[in-house]
Amino acid sequence: MATEKNSNGYEGLLPLCLRWLKPIFAKLSNKAVKLATMTKKLAKDDSRRVVHAFKVGLAISLVSLLYYFKALYDGFGTSTMWAIVTVIVVDEFSVGGTLGRGLNRVMATLLAGGLGFGAHYLASLGGDTGRPIILAFFVFLLASISTFTRFFPKIKARYDYGMLIFILTFCMVSLSGYRDDEIAKLALSRILTILIGCCFTLFVCIFVRPVWAGTDLHCLVANNIQSLALFFQGFGAEFFRLSQEEVSKDDMQKYRTILNSKSNEESLTNLARWEPRHGKFRYRHPWKQYLKIGSLNRECAYRLELLNGYLKTNQFQMPSQQIHGPFKEECMKICSESSRGLRELALALRKMVLPLTAKSHIEKAKVAAEDLKSHLEEWRFEEVNNAMEIVQVVSLASLLFDTICCIEKIVDSVQELASMAGFKAVEVQSSVAPEQQMDLQDQDQYSLQPSHGAAVLLAHHAITIDEQSPC
Amino acid sequence: MATEKNSNGYEGLLPLCLRWLKPIFAKLSNKAVKLATMTKKLAKDDSRRVVHAFKVGLAISLVSLLYYFKALYDGFGTSTMWAIVTVIVVDEFSVGGTLGRGLNRVMATLLAGGLGFGAHYLASLGGDTGRPIILAFFVFLLASISTFTRFFPKIKARYDYGMLIFILTFCMVSLSGYRDDEIAKLALSRILTILIGCCFTLFVCIFVRPVWAGTDLHCLVANNIQSLALFFQGFGAEFFRLSQEEVSKDDMQKYRTILNSKSNEESLTNLARWEPRHGKFRYRHPWKQYLKIGSLNRECAYRLELLNGYLKTNQFQMPSQQIHGPFKEECMKICSESSRGLRELALALRKMVLPLTAKSHIEKAKVAAEDLKSHLEEWRFEEVNNAMEIVQVVSLASLLFDTICCIEKIVDSVQELASMAGFKAVEVQSSVAPEQQMDLQDQDQYSLQPSHGAAVLLAHHAITIDEQSPC
């Protein structure tokens, strides 16, 4: 009886446990699948992330050789750790980030090391009682000042890490000096190990598939202009509910990422300014001009956000024929010319050549907008029964006009960048009819010419420059 | 002759030097003045920055006591440095930032310390040859994985620093173990000194004039709503060029900071989630709802950016009387009601009470907008000579209507927040006429009542709750 109960009890316990564990396992496997999907997506979206992870692993493995070889380790002793720490904290995704952090770390360590020595010397003049008081005063003073300095916008943007390392090293050197008389050796080995760490990191960062923040910024701005173009390309057909769908809805919505691109653009600009000459970018490339273009892109995107509202709401009633006819024609023209102009601008920026034809497309769009305006003025309103019928036509036209003015400013600022950075003059030799120019970047051929200042020469020999594009 | 020349030469050298140094001194003094102005401005804009700088100085000075007292120093030896380093890298502006970094540091150190031990033990099984290979493999693997993990958006937002410290500590423990057999002691003193450093930092951070990221976020969102209100308060008068100037131009432009507020709001939300109960905010305050309100604020600000365009351009021609009359009346009503509704919403959010009357103001604005729409429909267009005369009126009306829909969503999401966070129901007892309600936050009296769910009770006893506002 007792054994039966017992065996019953055991039989009952196992299924009970299983029932208990099943949802936990289900939850765990669910999480694992989610994690795997996320990992795959992250790696697929930008394969450089995987490369970066391995690069960091490589740099740390390389620098840890200092530990494995006794001859190297004996030179620095426990300070060898600083080389490892340096690699870990300095190795950033882009070359600009790594260089910026590395320079910040080295310069701050040198400066703070020197000041730490000074403080140590001054404190030693104070005798046994005065020494801790003088040291504490210096530490408090410099910590407070350097912490406050980190609130200065310019310092926060480029030297924030340096200020942190400055106060850290200062405290290290001056306080260690209180307990250890060999601070000269300590400071020297710290500097040397930090330099070694920086060298290893920079070596791996620059020579193993480097990621340049400058190139990223350049391509980001060019892609954002392309996104604006895609919106216009699809807007006309979408608005008048034409059957042909030139652009997918997802492509049209790409402009939305521009709305909140400011902080990304600013941080990339700050990183790009650390970078040396690379690819077609020289050391003092006018990075700040990208901020200007980016801010104009955003102003344009704000307007697109409203234009997009016209697509979403079903409130819009197609106006009657006498308005619809001319309105549609001008509207489609504005959209197609704006889109073409922006696409050529994006392409020229990508290829780093002078945008020669973009302006003329925008001018055509502007003319179409003026035509629309005069059409609106000519209309006999007695012909229209319902005023609301034209309310939305009019407000849309006004918004389009406003947007074109905004695009014109983008074109001007890209031209400004082109002349600042000395982009070459290149003539677009489009081999396809304008209607077929679905994706300019794949089909167009460019002819490269020597540029004389801003003057544009005609093409003589056409070469494809696709492989020269940094994006 | 020679002496004369010499003396002439000396006489010539001194002025030469002075002439040389003068512009340098002028430049330096110019820079110094600029620096002083900037410092003064930074300190004046937010006096908590100065307090923070002194707090960091204080925390470092306190923790450096470990160095000055021999009994304390002897316990940890050179590991004492980790306490200093911890204070410097963990001490952030807000309590949330400090807590987040501190927890990240402690947890990552514990976890990586344990794993480092494990790796050390496994490597020691490999013999003299296998040891460095096994160690290098572990270091490479964990460094790569943890670096890639930092690309996950959720981890980047909250555990980025932890991942850095994880790989740092793992390398430290496992590699030190290769050279030093006393790693148990090393790991223990590292953990203890980090804990001590965190305790000192948190003590100073929380008990000396704490800065709460949650409160900052709450006030930022409330202020942004207030900025939207200020724009509407001034827009009507500015647009119709009325002499009375209700709001200064600078106040009207405050909405522009909302356009790029996303990253700031996101980082504050991430910090606020670390914070314990403080003031009127409990531990699990619905911080994420602020992101929703913030994003609606931005959508509204995009529209304000266009409305602002109507003020800037001088293109706008005042329409003739038959349009102007009713248009102006409705327009002014829309602006004043929107402004009032938004102001009451901002005030309610500031005081953390249910926004009871905001919705009704927005409803009134919507009614006015509908009236305007029907007015537009009723107009006989034959009365109007020039179609362009009404083009801008119509597009402005359409934009205003669109904006009101946006404001309505803001009101709804704030009400959602109020019910999620259990704001109390409070009746506005305005003691001034609506026209005089220039600055609600200074003049209004609120009556606090017990709330029964979402039900609103009438006021019985009125108390001023100004001192309870977290902003």
UniProtKB/TrEMBL annotation, chains A, B:
Topology relative to the membrane: Multi-pass membrane protein
**Keyword terms of this UniProt record:** Ion channel, Ion transport, Membrane, Transmembrane, Transmembrane helix, Transport
Location in the cell reads: Membrane
Write down any Gene Ontology CC term. Answer: membrane
Q: Which GO terms describe its biological process?
A: malate transport; monoatomic ion transmembrane transport
* Residues that span the membrane, as ranges: 50-69, 106-127, 133-152, 159-178, 190-208
Q: Which family does it belong to?
A: Belongs to the aromatic acid exporter (TC 2.A.85) family.
Query: What protein name does the entry list?
Result: Aluminum-activated malate transporter 2-like
